[in-house]
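Morning run. Coffee first, then this:
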Amino acid sequence: MGCVACFQSYKFQNELKRKSFSCHDFLSELEQYKQNYMNEVLALVPVNLCGCMAGTLDSGFIDWTNSFMSDMKIDLQLIEGVFDQLMSVFKTERIDANAAKDDFKAIIKQYEVDLLVAPQVMCNSIWYRGRPLGSYNPQDIKELFHIPFSKRGFASCLRFNKQNEPTLYFGSSILAVEKELSTTLVDLNIGAFAPIYSIYYNKKIFDFRNILFETIQKSLPAIFSDGMKISYSDKHMSINSQSIKTDLARSIIYEVCTFPVDPNGNGAKEEYTLPNILSDILRDLKFIGIQFPSTKSYIDLVDEHEFSRHNINVVIFVEDNKMSDIDIDRLNSFRTYAVNGSETYSYTLKDIEDMMDVLRTKFIASSKGRALNDEKIQTANIKLHLEYMKHSKINGVDYYDSITGKTELEFISKLLIDFDAVV
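And here it is:
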């Protein structure tokens, strides 16, 4: 039993999904998850009776969440219907892949899922890729890019790409890369990729997350604590009494498409069937990629800021133009960095903050103006990432004193040095 705040959290939903792992196949797991989800909705209590958000409760926040909770309980039929629609797509895919794609398209149109576009200004930071150690040149950034098209047979089916379909997966932090690859830096070579804003600003990246959690646990407490008076019926808010059905449906689509793989399952990775169909549809809709929170456990990381984006995965689609073994245009859309032997891993967080302060002073004094927007936006976003992680600890060590954090600082320094040269 919990309130709407803890119920919508990534942790709670992940645990709820894992409770279905004893089932024999994904469809049965999904049916069990649906039942568990609906039972938890029926058992929801007001936030002031839960205790998960002690110290953040404003009377306006309590009123808002009570109204939201009431609508969730009223909308049980909608909740069940969305689950059933998705399960129907899954069953249809076994018989007719094209028909399944058409059915999923209809769901996307019904709940306006295609409108979930990530603000490009927020995507413009620095992303990381890891590759297990092997007999290749780790200083060649192409070796840390996507699997060559001529070797597409090595591209395994992942959450947002099919078998034999090379795709780029990035982490928003090196910790995210370690988590996704289930290993540590000791066994990895890392490359850093900084998207060039002037290339990406008009491109669409799908923003795939549970907006209900983001709003209820992150945005609303701060809004109410600042004395703002808003109502659940206020249609100008991103979640309100008029949008609740669409918002609920979108959150369920997100939860189903990020269902963790059952480690004791049949090995077919059926959990990837629906997100694979979704990624196909997004390509048709001219999206170039997807960003979504990791489903991995970060239990060893503590004291990070609640707004931190250290656990974001970014998927970027690549195109085979038959002229090159990799997508050269996509590669050239990044500033890229690989380890070259000059690294000392001695930078401290303060060193990087000082470099940024000097750089911002130069930005202000520069006569180049908008010509430096790429560098200014990227610097601001990286600064925010550092601030959100500066008090965090990994396995009891300050994150930026750990080898993972030190490696991040090393790559960030390379980018800032390049920015300084441009100014």
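The mean pLDDT is 92. Good start to the day.
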